[in-house]
Amino acid sequence: MKSFLKVILVFVFALTIWFLLFACRGGLNKKIDRIQGALERKIPAENLFVAPDYNKDRPLSVAILPFENLTQEKGASDLLRRLFYNNFSSLAYKDIELSTINAKLPQFNP
Question: Least packed by Cβ within 10 Å: which of 13, 73, 77, 92?
Answer without folding.
Answer: 92
